[in-house]
Design a protein that fits this description.
about 250 residues; eight-stranded parallel barrel; binds 1,3-dihydroxyacetonephosphate; globular
């Protein structure tokens, strides 16, 4: 019922030329894929080149962040209007690196989520606990709070496009992937919280991705689980072969 979604978060890597070179190698590797939706999230300056190169291919393009206002005196920011005008269709919201280094909070995540939905951008809202929170048994509390503030004031019928990415902070860029059991438990907590807020129909149709050191050799064991509907991949998405292998391994389940 929920189609697998595999997204690449390129973070602050790749120039426009490097992005299009990636696509030249990548497209032939995934030309037979129909099992997963593929989304590439390059850095903002690369969006136009990646949108152009992806035209007519079954690959969507997303931004890694955006402001919630349509326009205004917000130096250095990018608005949802600009992102949709470029032709991107998805946006990452509240990535832990945004929370950690750029003061993103659950409240700004909520504003950005409302803006994304209002502009028909598919929001990929990132949540996840820090290591010390997991060690103190606070994972469920953290996830429940992040989800409830993110969804505050949004009508259930508006949440159709919502995608959540569970990215435990201790697993990002560390090579310390969550075990399938840990990830599945967290995804169940998130889905139950969405059900409590917006009803079971919304919860059942919301895709929840896992992110944090996803590699070709663990993508299959993570994505085969009931509540894991895909992956948000950082480092291993920078290389076309490795990202294509993740898609292949995630979809042969
Ligand atoms: P890594 O796959 O490099 O651990 O990054 C995960 C991530 O932050 C994706 O958004």
């Amino acid at each position: 019922m929920r189609k697998l979604l595999i997204a690449a978060n390129w973070k602050m890597y790749k120039t426009p030329a490097e992005s299009t070179a990636f696509l030249t190698s990548f497209f032939p590797l995934v030309k037979n894929n129909t099992a997963a939706e593929i989304v590439l999230c390059p850095a903002m300056p690369c969006l136009p080149a990646v949108v152009d190169a992806a035209r007519g291919k079954s690959v969507s393009v997303g931004a890694q962040n955006m402001h919630w206002h349509n326009e205004g005196a917000y130096t250095g920011e990018t608005s949802p209007t600009m992102i949709t005008a470029i032709g991107a269709t998805h946006v990452l919201i509240g990535h832990s690196e945004r929370r950690q280094y750029f003061n993103e909070t659950d409240t700004t995540v909520n504003l950005k989520l409302k803006a994304a939905l209002a502009h028909s951008l598919v929001p990929i809202v990132c949540v996840g606990e820090h290591l010390n929170e997991r060690e103190q048994n606070l994972t469920a509390d953290v996830l429940n709070l992040q989800i409830s503030v993110a969804l505050e004031g949004i009508k259930p019928e508006a949440l159709g496009p919502l995608v959540i990415a569970y990215e435990p902070v201790w697993a990002i860029g560390t090579g310390r992937t969550a075990t399938p059991e840990i990830a599945e438990d967290a995804h169940k907590i998130i889905r139950a919280k969405i059900a409590a807020i917006a009803g079971s129909d919304v919860a059942d149709s919301t895709r929840i991705l896992y992110g944090g050191s996803v590699k070709p050799d663990n993508a299959g064991s993570l994505c085969c689980l009931d509540d894991i509907d895909g992956a948000l991949v950082g480092g291993a998405s920078l290389d076309p072969d490795s990202f294509a292998k993740i898609i292949t391994n995630a979809t042969t389940r």
